[in-house]
TrEMBL record:
Belongs to the short-chain dehydrogenases/reductases (SDR) family. This is SDR family oxidoreductase. Signal peptide: none annotated. Transmembrane segments: none annotated. It comes from the Bacteria. InterPro entries: NAD(P)-bd_dom_sf, SDR, SDR_fam.
Amino acid sequence: MDLYVKGKTAVVTGASQGLGRAITKELAIEGVKVFAVARNEALLDGLKDEISAVGDVVPVTFAQDFVAPDGPEKIATMALSALGHVDMLINNAGRSRPLDVNGPEDEWSAAMTLDFDRHRQLTQQLLPHFMERKQGAILNITSTYELRAINASAVAKASIVVWSKQLAGQLGRYGITVNCLQPGLIDTANIRRVFSDDERTKFAEREIPLGDFGEPQDIANMATFLVSPRARYITGSVVVVDGGMRHYPF
Ligand SMILES: NC(=O)c1ccc[n+]([C@@H]2O[C@H](COP(=O)([O-])OP(=O)(O)OC[C@H]3O[C@@H](n4cnc5c(N)ncnc54)[C@H](OP(=O)(O)O)[C@@H]3O)[C@@H](O)[C@H]2O)c1
């Protein structure tokens, strides 16, 4: 299926590894010029090399700490200057943050900053541009909101879900879509910190109907569709890609 994304432009945060890296690569292969942001310059350079080996639309990379107070403004300014205009925004940077039930204030605040505020702020930086052009596809990579143990990142991502729904309600008239993509357990560094190989196998056999954790490519496939013109009538949605993991115990 032609996704009609060739020649379009995108900003992807958290592009150096894991889901953001796979999304950047898939968009580039489909002919999208990506402004790829993360802190690790060496990984971003490696991504550029990887993409130039398989396609001709090489991303522009930008090393920036997203948590820096002026991070969102710098990213938006540099992206507009490098790309000319932005068609798609994929808010992906983040990190899992399991905490004790009385977790410290600084960890809660760090999670809300990285996993909610900076995404909202970057989106707000680009909104006037999207509204003026009367087009734009915003996709937020979120997380489950049904964990049974405290994870401050998942709380911040739940805020993103509510905010996205509200934004979608107000931005539809400008031709702008706002959606969330909720991964289950996808094999990235973020998740390998929590599950050893052995734990992964046992957990997947027990809890995931499709039998294993997902690959970053599984998320990249859905992300690329959701920001493409093929998804023009989808907004305010949360799309789950989890191998069937989510369930009630009966
Ligand atoms: N993998 C899963 O199963 C899963 C499940 C639920 C939700 N998620 C969500 O999916 C997103 C991607 O996760 P992942 O599994 O791909 O994680 P990952 O492999 O650890 O990658 C995280 C990305 O975020 C970037 N990042 C983190 N802190 C940053 C900062 N301060 N400034 C700039 N960039 C920063 C990292 O880049 P640098 O380190 O180079 O800065 C990296 O590119 C996250 O928001 C995560 O919460 C993932």
